[in-house]
Write a structure and sequence with these properties.
Layout (H helix, E strand, L loop, with lengths): L7 E4 L10 E4 L15 E4 L8 E3 L5 E4 L4 H10 L6 H9 L5 H4 L4 H7 L5 H8 L3 E5 L5 E5 H4 E3 L2 E2 L6 E7 L1 H4 L2 E7 L9 E7 L6 E6 L6 E5 L5 H11 L13 H19 L9
Parallel strand pairs: 1-3, 2-3
Antiparallel strand pairs: 4-5, 5-10, 6-7, 6-10, 8-9, 11-12, 12-13, 13-14
Helix pairs in contact: 1-2, 2-5, 8-9
């Protein structure tokens, strides 16, 4: 879609004062998908030269905001030697998008859109990722990926602030994971997406609920919970209006699927003979 209110596109490497009507341009798959009448200038990040994916000496993985879905998918399938590697492809596939979108859409863009069904939000929140944010004055701060999205389309970003990267801890990459997704349609947007991550070091379990809720909810249990404990914990934390409501699913259905999928990932990751569905 043409953005006929945009008067200029500048290279982000050329630092200029931020002004009203500016927007960061990553892949542009969202910006150019619908009218943006408030925009006057795009600040293009495509030439920043950030390495898409960097495995750090401590085992953590830094994902640049400009990393494309194609690059993330390829890395997870071919180069990441870690138990959590399959989760990368599962979340990439949750886009249900064409290869053209995969080659353009970025991890940072998906996070900064803040849509409940954003699968990069699901991935980074489930693996306890931390977002590095750059302010216009050059200062930096970090915020957990699970807290970066505060509601449907609401992000923890100040005016002109930039998401530089998301870092996944090495310990999280060593977790055994389980993935569940539900949609009203065969090729529809996620109505509920739940990820479980079992820590091999201390046996703790993290269950992350997204898509069904207006923001990510990550539940951490020092020991794997019973089915009843998991259910009551989720119900106590997610209030009625935090179960998302749109054309892709009613809140009641999303709550039902969120709870059901959470129990499925718990059962997959925690083998307790005879426990049943208490």
């Amino acid at each position: 879609m043409d953005l006929n209110t945009v008067e200029d596109v500048r290279d982000a490497r050329l630092r200029e004062p931020w002004r009203p009507g500016d927007a960061w341009l990553g892949g542009g798959t969202y910006l150019f998908s619908e009218p943006q009448p408030h925009l006057r200038r795009l600040v293009d990040l495509s030439r920043m030269g950030w390495e898409p994916l960097t495995r750090c000496p401590d085992g953590s993985l830094e994902i640049a905001a400009t990393c494309t879905i194609t690059q993330l998918s390829r890395y997870g399938r071919r180069f990441l030697d870690a138990p959590a590697a399959p989760l990368f492809e599962q979340c990439c596939r949750a886009f249900l998008a064409s290869f053209k979108i995969w080659n353009t859409a970025t991890v940072g863009g998906n996070l900064c859109n803040g849509l409940p069904a954003g699968p990069m939000i699901s991935l980074t929140a489930a693996l306890d990722g931390s977002c590095l944010l750059l302010a216009q004055d050059g200062s930096t701060r970090e915020v957990k990926a699970a807290g970066f999205v505060r509601g449907a389309g609401v992000k923890d970003l100040a005016e002109g602030e930039l998401l530089r990267s998301v870092t996944l801890p090495g310990r999280a990459l060593e977790c055994r994971t389980a993935f569940r997704q539900a949609s009203l349609y065969g090729l529809g947007r996620s109505g509920a997406l739940v990820i479980g991550a079992l820590d091999p070091v201390d046996g703790s379990l993290a269950v992350t609920v997204t898509a069904a809720t207006t923001r990510p909810f990550r539940f951490w249990f020092p020991l794997p919970p019973t089915a009843e404990h998991l259910r009551t914990t989720i119900d106590a934390a997610v209030s009625g209006d935090e179960w998302f409501d749109d054309i892709h699913g009613l809140p009641e259905w999303r709550r039902h699927m969120g709870l059901r999928l959470a129990e499925e990932v718990r059962r997959e990751l925690v083998h307790t003979p005879g426990e049943g569905a208490r």
